[in-house]
Amino acid sequence: MADLREFERGGVEPPQPHYTVDTLPAAEAQTLLRREAETWAAAALAGPKGGARTVIGIRGAAGLGKSTTLLEAVLPLLRAGLRVTFFVPRLNLGDELAGKAIANLEAVAEAERGDSDPLEIWEPPPPLPPVGVLRGREAVDVAGAAVCGRAALVNALQRKGLSAYRNLCERFAVQDGSPVALLCPMAHRCAHYQQSNDARPGLFFAPHAYLTTPAPSGQRKPDAVIIDESWWQVAIKERSINLEDWLADRVWLGDAPVDEDDFTLGLARAWLVRRAGLVHQLMLAGTAPADWPAHGLTADDCRRAARLEGESAAPAIDPAMADTAIGAVLEAHTPTPASRLAGLWRALAVEIETARSALHSVTLGKAGPTDARRTVIAWFKRSDLRGVPAEAPVLLLDASMDPEIVRLWFPTIRIVRLDVERKALVVGLTDRALGQSSLVELADKNGGSNAGRTFARNNRLALANLFEVVSATAGPTLLATYKAILPTLRDHPDTTATVARAISKNPAIAKISPLGHLGGLRGSDDYRDYAAVIVAGRLQPTVLAVENLARALFFDAVMPLAFLGANRLPKVERRRRMRDGSESVALVEAHPAPRIQAVLEQCRERELEQVVDRLRLIHRIRPALVIVASSVVLDITYDAVLPWSDLVPSRAVSALVRGGVLPANAGLRAAAFPDLWTSADAAKKDGQRAGQLGDNPLWKLIQRALSPNCGTAKPLAMDATYRRDGVRGLPSAAKVLADLTDDDIKAALEGLHGGAIKDLRVVRPVAAEAVPEGVSDATAPGHGTGLLAVGGVVVPFPNAIPGTANTDTRCNCGARPQSRIAAA
Q1: Cα dist. 261→18, 258, 303, 311 in Å?
Q2: Alpha carbons 99 and 710: distance in angstroms, whole number
Q3: Angle in degrees, CA 372, 375, 376, rounded to 5
Q4: Angle, CA 508 vertex, CA 503 and CA 511 arms, to 5°
Q5: DSSP readout, 23-68?
């Protein structure tokens, strides 16, 4: 941190955050988006001209309106009789966008009918362009029917490494000297066969998996293409073969020669085995691929070997056969590793031609369970996007777009960044990454221990309490964490009641589960109306996994990659981008090789940002509360950072949220919440240690999110006094949630005491000036005067809440104002 010390002495400029940004107003960003969409559409209408095709990349956060704008831009293409394919990450997103597209087309047609001259001769309106979703054989359509009636046979063929289309759908054979099409008996009523032979124009949505699959010969190729969200990982291919299979005799080749014109080369079987053994020796010796030709193996030799390996002998089946007959043939068929052997030879040819100092895309190592380790040769490759015609204009939409990665497929792409400030109060974590072992109880065989499992259990319980408090105070909350712990959160006795209470706080909006797993929410629009999101953890692949991704991406790059050769990544300093300009530094694991680090950030940082953007933070009326429970530094503007101990709700906060009331009497607290306090003395000491309820950092942050000046307009709790019926003396005191009515408060207190109460008095805040209904943001009270309308209330916003005024070195959560809530 020498640069920081130098800055403090006035020697240099302040250090920059790791991610810097130049934000645009939302309206300006939408104008640029519309302009780029029109440029892409114009290129599609003009058709291929023989020059470089138009490829535009839009990098902008979710919620900007990218999909809606593109559906409008597609309309001229559909009217011109073009076919547009829109690739999406998931089929259900394709169904959603298809519904929007149809509604848009119907609205346009209705508007045109309304504008027509009533005196003209009526003509029936033209039919709407087709809009559909391309589905795989195993998918189920919107009506619940299977797309392919032979789904079981499809699985059997795929396990054997055989083509489903050629063996089940359609194959051309020669009978009596003439070509004959052998069709599936169900082809006339098969949705997948009809889809594969659909030559109509229109707008069709397809999953990302179709990017690397060439369109069937009978299907019309798209004239223009849109690719939505991160897609490049579907083009990463990893294959492996056992060393024994690599060195084994190719008995299926029989007596075939290497070259029918040169019998001196001998049989193909022996020639291949000798060269496979040579490859193994060169790999063991660590010989540079550039030197392999000097040892007797050239790239041409590898390509010849790939041709000689051939393909596994195809079974004697055709689409017209009965299912039982096909199943019997498949049962008896034993596939050979020919196709994998050929693939490895092709990978070795690339290694020799790139002439790097060490193997990159091919590795020799061990694989399998500990008690059954075997030696394997693995190879990695970046597949071509065969589902995208070479001349079709392409528009890529991806908030996580990395220029160096995307240019591997689209070298001429022009990337446009549309950075718009998110409307959110963002809270980060300072002292832990909250890795998977911090929340998942690992078994001993997986490196776990009793202490580690206790640590994970306590963190999971704290996370459930955080979820309940935020859901009860801020509003509907999305909790995104590791997929492995979601069942435990829902079902474990320690957390099931807490999670159930959190979900029940907002039954009207929680039509889907507010629990999601990291990596499984990309593209989802289900949480746009949620008030808060908690991102707990990080998706960090192992060093080996991220380096293998880089091997595949840059398999043919001349510049070598620098592999780490270790199981742990070193830590480096990363500065967060703080809204108040204060300094916040985190230690983050990073790979020293820039290209491999870019791959790591695509898997880790960009995926967490995708979860944050599920709340559609650009066009919100009230800022959302975003809690990033991980020390990973994201490309987002932070308002506060806290240690885990401050982010976790205090016992008093949990009790207040759970019961709605929090009695001042320590004995009553312990009796009402025995899981939080084991005795009255424990409750009393906890109150002395934790201090005032209003001093809890999480409580303050939620108040700040709901009303920017920390609770003046929207307090979360109020003071109340009351008397127990028949009990003399001073009135009792309690804290009560601000949203409760007097009747709710009375019922809750009577439930705690087990008897009637009287003389209830609740100190409610003075109502602020309300914003009249129907008033726009521009004309609302406070507009242009430094005041902010939040939730229908005019709130005076302070000039700043400087994080530098905070003397607590562990956190940067803004100045702590005087508590407006008395001691609980």
Answers
A1: 63, 9, 18, 22
A2: 42
A3: 115
A4: 70
A5: ---HHHHHHHHHHHHHHHHHHHHH---SSPPPEEEEEE-TTS-HHH
- How many other C-beta atoms can be found within 10 angstroms of the C-beta atom of residue 324? 8
Please name the helix (run of DSSP H) or strand (run of DSSP E) that holds residue 552, with its range, or none: helix 543-553
Predicted pLDDT of residue 296: 94
The dihedral over CA atoms of 653, 658, 663, 665, expressed in degrees to the nearest 10, equals: -80
- Between the two ends of the chain, the Cα-to-Cα distance in Å is 41
Q: Residue 779 and residue 577: Cα distance in Å, rounded?
A: 32
Strands 202-207 and 55-60: unpaired
Of 427, 433, 434, 527, nearest in space to 479 by CA: 527
Q: What are the pLDDT digits (tens) for 233-251?
A: 999 999 999 999 999 999 8
Residue 152's H or E segment, with its range, is helix 151-159
**Quick one: which H or E segment has residue 130?**
none
pLDDT at residue 427, as a whole number: 94
> Which helix (H) or strand (E) covers residue 413, if one does?
none
Among candidate residues 563, 571, 567, the one with its CA nearest the CA of residue 587: 571
- Average pLDDT value for residue range 315-320: 83
- Name the one residue in this structure whose structure tokens are 């223009």: 224
Ramachandran angles phi, psi of 734, nearest 5°: -160, 160
Which has more pLDDT, 625 or 177? 625
Which tokens is 110 given? 């209705």
Between vectors from CA 41 to CA 37 and to CA 43, what angle results, nearest 5°? Answer: 120
Two tokens, residue 112: 């045109």
Q: Which long-range contacts (CB under 8 A, 24 or more apart) does 724-730 make?
A: 724/753, 724/755, 724/756, 724/757, 724/758, 725/755, 725/756, 725/757, 725/758, 726/755
pLDDT of residue 159: 81
Q: Where are the beta strands (DSSP E) in 322-470?
A: 362-367, 374-382, 394-397, 414-418, 424-429
> Residue 517: beta bridge partners?
481
Pair type for strands 585-589 and 532-536:
unpaired
| Residue from 465, 462, 469 nearest 660 by CA | 469
Q: Which helix (H) or strand (E) holds 533?
A: strand 532-536
| DSSP secondary structure code for residue 549 in this structure | H
Q: Tell me the pLDDT tens digit for each residue of 503-546.
A: 887 776 656 788 889 988 887 888 888 999 999 999 999 999 99
What distance in Å separates the CA atoms of residue 219 and residue 165, rounded to the nearest whole number? 13
Q: Dig out the tokens for 786 from the structure.
A: 């430094």
Confidence class for position 48, pLDDT limits 50, 70, 90: confident
> pTM for the complete prediction?
0.84
Q: Which residues pair with 477 in a beta bridge?
A: 532
Res 694 pLDDT > 70: no
Q: What is d(CA 628, CA 633) in angstroms, rounded to the nearest whole number? A: 9
Which amino acid is located at 216 in the chain? P
Alpha-carbon distance of 181 to 173, in angstroms, equals 6
The sheet with strand 131-133 has its strands ordered as 131-133, 202-207, 83-88, 224-228, 394-397, 55-60, 414-418
In whole angstroms, give the CA distance from residue 282 to residue 365: 14
CA distances from 721 to 156, 661, 713, 745, 810 (A): 72, 11, 22, 11, 36
CB within 8 Å of 484: residues ≥ 6 apart: 436, 440
